[in-house]
Amino acid sequence: MFEVRNDEPKYAFLNPKNISEKSRYGQSIELTEPGSALRNQSLKINNDASIGYNPNRYKQHGFYFNADNCIGCHACESACSEKNEVPIHLAYRSVGFVEGGTYPDYQRINISMACNHCEDPVCLKGCPTRAYTKFAEYGAVLQDPDICFGCGYCTWVCPYNAPQLDPVKGEVSKCNMCVDRLEVNLKPACVAACLGNALDFGVIETIPEGRVQAKAEIPGFPTTDITHPNIRFQQTRTTHREMTRTDAMPLKYHKDDREGKFKPVVDPKQGSEKHWNLRQLLTSHESAHVIFTLSTQATVGAFMMLTLSGWFGIDALAPLQNVSIKLPLTVLMVLISTFGLFKLNMHLGKPHRFYRGFNNLRLSPVSREIAGVSLFYSGLLGYAALSWFDNGLLQFFAQASALVAVLSGAAGLFYMYKLYRIPARPFWNHWQTGSSFAGSMLSLGSLMVAVAGLFALPESAAALPVLFAAMAAGLALEGAGLAVHARDMQALGNEGAASHYRQVTLYGKPYLLRNVLLGLNMLLAGGLVMTGAAGAAGIVSVTVLTLTMLTASALGRSLFFVLVIPTTMPGAFFWKNSGFVDHARATGLADKPQHGVVYERHHAFDLKALIRTIRESSLRDMFAHVKWIFGK
Question: What is the pTM of this model?
């Protein structure tokens, strides 16, 4: 158990009083009934089988933050990092701020933020490896880094940026509520270290002595509707109607007088000029997801056209059953699908632990997507291996494999869509994500079949107009969704609108190019429906169409990942401040570990960066790097 010092100050001990029965969200604060099997179990902290003596062990606890008192000293950050031995490039707790007004009427509100141990933790539901558990003890949401395989999905769904993905170790970790200190009736380390008495802790809905408020929101704090976070605020000072952020996010907070709340709105701090930023766009951290989603959607679409046309006897697509088309198409599908899965797996922090992705089929859309796509790939391989034999039994297994691939491919794409419907990322949380994925499946799948069909001209000539029509339909579906999405994002006024603002400014030229190519592709595909691909002109048209469609798809899907702005706390002084991170990497400040910024090493082995980091790291960090190498 945690050792309590003889000279522990009184303010470091928990002092609960006036405990409510229900939280403001209607949930019981008592997390278990007396006599429940969940009670009187050890948390086995540091392998100690003892049970803590905290009298409120089974009540929901949470943080209390008094913004009036916070002076922005970052002592809470330091105490948390020291107590939990957090690596220099991560921070479980961060102090950010918003500011408003001008001299002499300038105002700054500091916000100290860590995991809020929510009543409805979306990280727990989303994690495919089941690395998260919400305990009856204190209502703590704890995460086991040893189970995590580093997909980072929890960092997407959390509205508060609490889970921290370590690019060196390839795993996520986060605030653990200092449950070892709670067991002996001590407050968390960050609370005990607070100089201004701004941070407190206890049973949720308990207002500490000398405080008068327990609000759920303050300016800059993300919406509480998604997870029902267990943190309460006091902020009594009159604020300006508009509070701004000091990081790179084009967001500010405007007071809505009808609701009495500050709501995020667009802050056009980057001007209105359009830029390219192609390098940042095409080499983002999520490039593996770009490749995986596009390749999977294309392969599933092509395979469905191949198999369904044979099952239902679609005369217009009957040429697809000819071996001269079927063979190159099958080889192409296997190669592209294999490459997409490889890129996705190597994107994991711990690729050798990929099998853990199936652990949370009951709750996680990621697990369901992985299961669906994996079954599709297995069915595709089975069909590719067996469909060429005349043996009746082998043909039966080939068609069974095809059926598995069709059903699981559809399920995999559905959950691929579901996993991006994330309330904490409004730019994604729109039906257009589904129309874009369906459009890509139809257009890229048709393109793949058409390209394979070109190897079998003139036998495939009858099928090509139908394929070009399906291609045009997929492009039209995607284009219509994008138009509605742009309109809806502008109307939102929140992080979705800020994402759209970046879309038309920071990435304005690639966005415009994608739109032009999308329109051109629809015209080309429509023209080929009428003329076919006969002659040299047809071959040239298909070649141009292939290049422009691949370019538009790569740009569009890259924009999808790069543009999204999550609901999150305002950037801190160094930690989590995207503007400072970009600046540090561009100027070399990331070479200094005290700044807490590391170069991305999540994708591939970087010897130069490794040598530089080891040279400036502690012995503990060196062991972490060595472990990371062997993990890779």
Answer: 0.90
